[in-house]
Amino acid sequence: MERGDLDRMAEVWLDDEISCVHPGWPVLRGRVDVLRSYALIMANTEYIQFFLTDVQVTVDGETALVTCTENILSGGPAEPDGGAGPLMGELVVATNIFRRTPTGDWRLWSHHGSPVLAGAEEDEAEDEPSEGP
């Protein structure tokens, strides 16, 4: 993803029925729609970098569940004067389900990313009634 390499991205996914939910997108099903979505994202993103945190991996037989927080830094096109374009940070919690293929390779079966609303815990604490005097 960071290199914008759609061919490599296609190798990560299973060949059969797959699904993907990007933050704010509807469910995409099938290789054509999923890979088209990545092509669209890559074509419209000048720069993207992922820092994964809170990674948890569970393997059960031929299936693996990987959850993590994607700390994403992305940016638009460079400024006309050659300076860096605008950068934006985003937090996404992701669930990835992998299946082991007959050749022993792990391939992505499903990806679901949900945005983390910044400050949500603080907002909830402010809304709670205070305890007596």
TrEMBL record:
It comes from the Bacteria. Gene3D superfamilies: 3.10.450.50. Residues 2-116 form the SnoaL-like domain. Pfam families: SnoaL_3 (PF13474). Transmembrane segments: none annotated. This is 3-dehydroquinate dehydratase. It comes from Wenjunlia vitaminophila.
